[in-house]
Amino acid sequence: MTITIDDRDHNLHAWVVVHSLGSLGGCGGVRCAPDVTLDEVKSLARAMTYKYAFFRQPMGGAKGGMVMDLDAPPERRRELVTALGRHLEHVLRTSAYHPWSDMNFSSDDVSALYAAARLPAPALNDDSSQRTARSTFAAVVATAANLGLRPTECRIAIEGLGSVGGYLARAIAEWGGRVVAVSNIHGAALNASGLPIGELLAMRQRLGDGFIRERGDWTNAPRAALFDAKVDILAPCARVGSMDQDLCERLSAKAVVPAANVPCTPAGEAALAKRAIPLLPDFVVNGGGVLGMVSHELDDPFFMTDFRQMIDRLLSASLAQGVAPIDLARRQSEQHHSAEPGDFFTPRSRGELIRAALRRRRLWPGNAQQAKALQRERLRETVNQLFRDA
């Protein structure tokens, strides 16, 4: 289902794509950029279907997109978000689409969207970016081990030093890895010996994305230069399709570990496969954000033990079978995809699903803490079973 919104009164151009419906509807963030397109939104909605199916969650995949300048004044942002919420009132009331935060669309924007639709906003988890970075970092650590690299030997490039990329860069630096290249829409910074991540992040906090143009203990370069840097792992944290065939044919990285959804064009993905460069599945690597929505209490031990070991198994199965990691993960998603439209029309809320599971375990009636513990344990069980028999 695709909803196209062209509101001339507010100069609003937006889309909502519901790729699939689970028993709880479809969920995905609202991506805001001056050049966002319907094709990008469709790709992202499909990726959300794969993500929820992979982690066996009762939600389908969806995505929103709205044309808006990255530096839109607060009053213009408010006008657009309010207009979008009014247009989406019906689809939000039916729970066919659950919007969430995304690039240039904050939790405050989500609340404003629901308010405009005259609906209560969901309980929002502001650390989605941090959890996405945690799962990505766990995948980076697993990939480095798979390549036989100690932290100090591992050279990493991060495309898109934004919210997720910033958290990821800090985690890598604390681990002992060398972040040798970072980029954003304004350019790139490179240092083969390792960038001063703390200094760069402090500058970003102070100056915004323009920090990348500042002078320091690094070389300033066009953003495309990041892809020519000599690295072991590339971590894309930017837009859909930023890695095309030409780029993937010249890439020096030994593995690609994406926090971004759908970072490669189809031709780019094929080029990586031809060169036997592992492309880890974006919808798995960045799954921390979705997992955090299901259970807000997932901690570092979960990501650095359960999640990392799952990535270990994926990489081992990929090597043993001669199948790209992303293709193995797609098979898992397709095998466990339960987003059937008929399920959506069965009136079962998330709370009812949790209570049913509690009853099966003779834990209901119970309290909210028991429900949270059950959610957490079910996620752990799911992750620990993945790729056991691959």
Strand content: 5-15%
Name the helicity range: 40-55%
Outline type: globular
CATH superfamily of the largest domain: NAD(P)-binding Rossmann-like Domain
Order of SSEs: EEEHEHHEHHEHEEHEEHEHHHHHHHH
Architecture blueprint of SSEs:
Layout: E1 2-7, E2 12-18, E3 26-33, H1 38-54, E4 60-67, H2 74-87, H3 89-93, E5 97-100, H4 107-116, H5 128-146, E6 155-159, H6 163-175, E7 178-184, E8 187-190, H7 197-207, E9 219-221, E10 233-236, H8 245-250, E11 255-256, H9 266-274, H10 282-285, H11 288-294, H12 300-321, H13 325-336, H14 341-344, H15 350-360, H16 368-385
Parallel strand pairs: 3-4, 3-5, 6-7, 6-10, 10-11
Antiparallel strand pairs: 1-2, 2-4, 7-8, 8-9
Helix pairs in contact: 1-13, 2-4, 5-6, 5-11, 5-12, 12-16, 15-16
Give a written overview of the molecule.
With 390 residues, the chain is an alpha/beta fold. The chain folds into 2 domains: 2-124, Leucine Dehydrogenase, chain A, domain 1 (Rossmann fold, 3-Layer(aba) Sandwich); 129-320, NAD(P)-binding Rossmann-like Domain (Rossmann fold), CATH 3.40.50.720. The chain is built from 16 helices and 11 strands. It has helices spanning 38-54, 74-87, 89-93, 107-116, 128-146, 163-175, 197-207, 245-250, 266-274, 282-285, 288-294, 300-321, 325-336, 341-344, 350-360, 368-385, and strands at 2-7, 12-18, 26-33, 60-67, 97-100, 155-159, 178-184, 187-190, 219-221, 233-236, 255-256. It has a 6-stranded mixed β-sheet with strand order 9-8-7-6-10-11, covered by helices on one side. It has a 5-stranded mixed β-sheet with strand order 1-2-4-3-5. Helix 1 (38-54) crosses helix 13, helix 5 packs across helix 6 (163-175) and helix 5 (128-146) packs across helix 12 (300-321). The longest helix has 22 residues, at 300-321. Residues 339-350 and 353-361 have low confidence and may be disordered.
